[in-house]
């Protein structure tokens, strides 16, 4: 068959598709879209000339040669692009939090959610450490967030509900977000023991780009699916949102669009504000509205600092 000759010459055997999962200084590692196998790929010289720079998460077409290596031929259009970490084609955010040790802070949760909404990424809220809480505590949390976000209660320690979380992750490219200490690393390890270890063993031959400051890689779950090894939104600073557009990042407010007396109502102190009525009636949760006001004021102040220059 082809093997001896082709292996020697690196003859192209097949054109295939895959996802870039990490970079070395001169090459990159790609997971094949069909088989899930990993291989090292090089980049054609013309990419540099053409200013084409692949990033982690890119879906690529590559040519597989007889020596088991690949050569990237093209990068498929990016569906999404996250800046920190720099990663493309993320399909969802897992917002990991705990209700105890540490106790969740509503404002921080709401900031994460605004960042995810702004990035137009679906969110699953993973409530970890449910071994530490009772049903009522979980219900109280679900009452605030359950209508607009999928909630997946788990215990990484006691291995509760991990299969459901695996279903959420399966076949997708995900990134985790969440405060320090909520159990993100523990969770990755419970979902797929040895995840990080195995990955670095497999690709020891791949030289790390030593001078890259923000190094990110996608870890591959055995059950299928990729996840960034670096939490997303580590920096909770709000993006450049025009204050009057903040309501679009709160699903319970944006779904009432057009219901307020003034069409440009920002739901702060206008008369006839339907959103405020819903807050009074208890159908929009007060803590969510309070977070909205805090972030609104923050954005407003920032806008004024910029000399009233409008953006967004
Ligand atoms: N009781 C309980 N403790 C847990 C659970 N999951 C994780 N922990 C503990 O919570 C602490 C923090 O866990 P980590 O996995 O390091 O949290 P992290 O989110 O990765 O933290 P950073 O690396 O700082 O971002 C550790 O002491 C874990 O043992 C759980 O389900 N139940
Ligand atoms: Zn209003």
Automatic annotation (TrEMBL):
Enzymatic class: hydrolase
Domain CP-type G: from-to ranges: 79-236
Any Gene Ontology biological process: ribosomal small subunit biogenesis
The UniProt record lists the keyword Iron-sulfur: no
UniProt subcellular location: Cytoplasm
Gene Ontology terms: cellular component: cytoplasm
Main location: cytoplasm
Enzyme Commission code: 3.6.1.-
Domain of life the protein comes from: Bacteria
Cofactor stoichiometry and binding remark: Binds 1 zinc ion per subunit.
Cofactor: Zn(2+)
Sequence ranges assigned to domain EngC GTPase in this UniProt record: 88-234
Pfam families attached to this UniProt entry: RsgA_GTPase, RsgA_N
GO molecular function: GTP binding; GTPase activity; metal ion binding; rRNA binding
Stored SUPFAM superfamilies: Nucleic acid-binding proteins, P-loop containing nucleoside triphosphate hydrolases
Residues the record lists as binding GTP: 128-131, 178-186
Record: residues binding Zn(2+): 260, 265, 267, 273
Keyword list, A-Z: Cytoplasm, GTP-binding, Hydrolase, Metal-binding, Nucleotide-binding, Ribosome biogenesis, RNA-binding, rRNA-binding, Zinc
Family to which the UniProt record says this protein belongs: Belongs to the TRAFAC class YlqF/YawG GTPase family. RsgA subfamily.
Function per UniProt: One of several proteins that assist in the late maturation steps of the functional core of the 30S ribosomal subunit. Helps release RbfA from mature subunits. May play a role in the assembly of ribosomal proteins into the subunit. Circularly permuted GTPase that catalyzes slow GTP hydrolysis, GTPase activity is stimulated by the 30S ribosomal subunit.
Matching NCBIfam families: ribosome small subunit-dependent GTPase A
Oligomeric form and interacting partners: Monomer. Associates with 30S ribosomal subunit, binds 16S rRNA.
Protein name: Small ribosomal subunit biogenesis GTPase RsgA
Organism from which the protein derives: Mesotoga prima MesG1.Ag.4.2
Source taxonomy: Bacteria, Thermotogati, Thermotogota, Thermotogae, Kosmotogales
